[in-house]
Amino acid sequence: xxxxxxxxxxxxxxxxxxxxxxxxxxxxxxxxxxxxxxxxxxxxxxxxxxxxxxxxxxxxxxxxxxxxxxxxxxxxxxxxxxxxxxxxxxxxxxxxxxxxxxxxxxxxxxxxxxxxxxxxxxxxxxxxxxxxxxxxxxxxxxxxxxxxxxxxxxxxxxxxxxxxxxxxxxxxxxxxxxxxxxxxxxxxxxxxxxxxxxxxxxxxxxxxxxxxxxxxxxxxxxxxxxxxxxxxxxxxxxxxxxxxxxxxxxxxxxxxxxxxxxxxxxxxxxxxxxxxxxxxxxxxxxxxxxxxxxxxxxxxxxxxxxxxxxxxxxxxxxxxxxxxxxxxxxxxxxxxxxxxxxxxxxxxxxxxxxxxxxxxxxxxxxxxxxxxxxxxxxxxxxxxxxxxxxxxxxxxxxxxxxxx
Length: 404
Ligand code: NDP
What we know:
Layout: E1 4-8, H1 13-24, E2 30-33, H2 41-47, E3 56-59, E4 62-65, H3 67-75, H4 79-82, E5 96-103, H5 107-118, E6 124-126, E7 140-141, E8 151-152, H6 153-166, E9 170-172, E10 176-180, E11 186-190, E12 195-203, E13 207-209, H7 215-219, E14 225-226, H8 229-232, E15 240-244, H9 248-257, E16 263-267, H10 277-285, E17 289-292, E18 295-303, E19 307-315, E20 321-324, E21 328-331, E22 335-337, E23 368-370, H11 382-402
Parallel strand pairs: 1-2, 5-6, 5-12, 6-9, 12-23, 14-21, 15-16, 15-21, 16-17
Antiparallel strand pairs: 1-3, 3-4, 7-8, 10-11, 11-12, 13-22, 18-19, 19-20
Helix pairs in contact: 1-3, 5-6, 5-11, 9-10
């Protein structure tokens, strides 16, 4: 069995995701929690060749990277080999047939699972590359009904999952590579090579964070550039940072970062925010946040030794460029729907969101239902996702009853 070491933090959803994936493999690991042992932060950065994000995972002394890298190894079928598990999973390669398969484990998928499990449909949830969905990388959620004092997003998703498990939902780690919707039961191929067949399918694969698309952004990703302030803000204690975006996520991240950073520059391409009024008021009142309006990031500056050192900004109205010294950049510019595997199989709108029959969760293929952000470019709230997850399970249950 391989020797596994993980550097983590207490409030770090990607750390939890990495540990869940390793746990699903039945392996043990040594954990160094930097909240408990802050003096080991520089040891981690040095071992990880300058990476300033958690988790950092080492297998037999070899740096793997973070959760995304671990998950990519799983998708490519290479993880078992690295963990010394090859040859131990032959029986799981047999296709498993279920009544309902649910793709995605955010509020939509887990609510669908709760309802489907209570209807004795024995659902299997394929948790996806971001188990728990977007709420696991947010902080406090103030508008989910039933929590008058607010609730932490990751805690809320743990409760969703426990409730789904209580009624017998089965979970699988991993992501969908390919689906065959041409005949029933539908066939789902996971990126790790596993195959599942399902009589009905609920797609709740959500949406993923968008990146700016700059080469320099890719170059400094994990070395200053991040999409998760709650995970990585800690590395920027006493340093100036920037956030790009003008929606609720960007403003929430900017506020969160004021707990660590000396200054937070909030860069927005227009002269008004898209975020809710309550969030705008909080940001504009916070003296640590400086809003840079009408501006875009043209380049992330830095070098291999120092990592990221600043940003080149461009004012979109005047065309003027200027450099600003910051050591971190948090990108919060919205999301794109995770519908890649369904291209040319299911009807989508021009932005790639799945189309459903209004008032239902029915997609263009009978027996396939869609719930949550993957089919909602308008509301995109945890509560609306949960509501549509409930609808999808009821739609699937009725459809199965009619077709038995
Ligand atoms: P949004 O789509 O709401 O906002 C994205 C922001 O990024 C916009 O301000 C947009 O600018 C900007 N942007 C998009 N592309 C680029 C680009 N290429 N370069 C620069 N800027 C860009 O996404 P969010 O993730 O903020 O929010 C998604 C949903 O989740 C919303 O419905 C939001 O209300 C909700 N949410 C709710 C929270 C809460 O209630 N606690 C917390 C977080 C999110 P522009 O405005 O010009 O289009």
